[in-house]
UniProtKB/TrEMBL annotation:
Name under which the protein is recorded: Arylformamidase
Ranges of residues in domain BD-FAE-like: 66-152
Entry superkingdom: Bacteria
InterPro entries per record: AB_hydrolase_fold, BD-FAE-like_dom, GDXG_lipolytic_enzyme
Residue intervals passing through the bilayer: none
PANTHER family for the chain: AB HYDROLASE SUPERFAMILY PROTEIN C4A8.06C, KYNURENINE FORMAMIDASE
């Protein structure tokens, strides 16, 4: 795709960076929270979970018998690090849940197919190896924001678990924030200048097109009320599509939050998203 095919209205609706007064300020706040999490929490760092790509994850709050929650960062698949997303750990760790924060290979050096594979490989690694760290890894809980919300949806999706030797009910709770669940609109945005997606990608990797029937996953969705319309539409459509497939799904309204500070609430044990996720994990584990 070239820049001439960009639709200005759709591009506006999915431009997260320009949806806030200062992206640098929002990013800086999350960096402060992540730096504090890395300083305060016990961490097992730089664990390679996928030998082929060399991708790594960090484990926070390891303790015997704890369930584990995997956080998948956003950044439109081309930006982000596990260190910069450590903010996702403190809230759930305070509730007795270990948190894995992962890296994945970034576009445009790799395709979206490769990125999805690495996220699924992280789930597989945690399920197979989590017990070596004393964790209860019978079921893996996952979450992510923006592109990470899409990747969370790719983990919920059907049709891949047997290829990784995983049971169908391996995903317990999923928390998807500000996600993109139908990739087709992004074909008409600047995002596709680095993602190089086509309708084949849309068909294969749009979570809304691969929702399992009556999944045992407990899905929690949210999107900031101050976000642009593309993200609001995607969340509403995915909620309805999951409900139509008899999934357990709820959407938590966060009217005062934008695309970035909604994720920062995960550092607070008393935040609505953390408490809802912790309750769900404790219920389904």
């Amino acid at each position: 795709m070239n820049a001439g095919t960009i639709n200005p209205r759709i591009d506006h609706d999915f431009n997260a960076r320009e949806s806030v007064a200062s992206f640098d300020d929002e990013f800086g706040k999350l960096t402060v929270l992540s730096d504090k999490a890395m300083a305060d929490l016990p961490r097992e760092a730089d664990i390679v979970f996928d030998r082929e790509s060399g991708s790594k994850l960090d484990l926070y709050g390891i303790a015997p018998g704890r369930p584990v929650f995997l956080w998948i960062h956003g950044g439109y698949w081309r930006l982000g690090t596990k260190e910069g997303n450590a903010f996702a750990a403190p809230g759930l760790v305070d509730h007795g849940i270990a948190v894995a924060v992962m890296d994945y290979s970034l576009a445009p050096a790799v395709s979206l197919e490769q990125i999805v594979h690495e996220v699924r490989a992280a789930v597989s690694w945690l399920h197979r190896k989590g017990n070596l760290y004393g964790l209860d890894a019978r079921r893996i809980h996952v979450g992510g924001s923006s592109a990470g919300g899409h990747l969370t949806g790719a983990v919920i999706a059907d049709g891949w678990r047997s290829d990784y030797g995983l049971p169908e009910d391996v995903i317990g709770t999923a928390l998807a924030l500000s996600g993109i669940y139908d990739l087709e609109p992004l074909l008409h945005t600047q995002v596709n200048t680095w993602m190089n997606m086509n309708m084949g990608t849309v068909a294969a990797l749009s979570p809304i097109r691969h929702i399992p029937q009556a999944s045992e996953t407990d899905l929690i969705l949210s999107v900031g009320g101050q976000e642009r319309d593309g993200f609001l539409r995607e969340t509403a459509a995915y909620h309805d599509a999951c409900a139509a497939k008899a999934m357990q799904v709820q959407t938590i309204a966060m009217p005062k939050y934008n695309h970035f500070d909604i994720t920062g609430t995960l550092s607070d044990p008393a935040s609505e998203l953390v408490e809802a996720t912790a309750r769900s994990i404790q219920k389904v584990t």
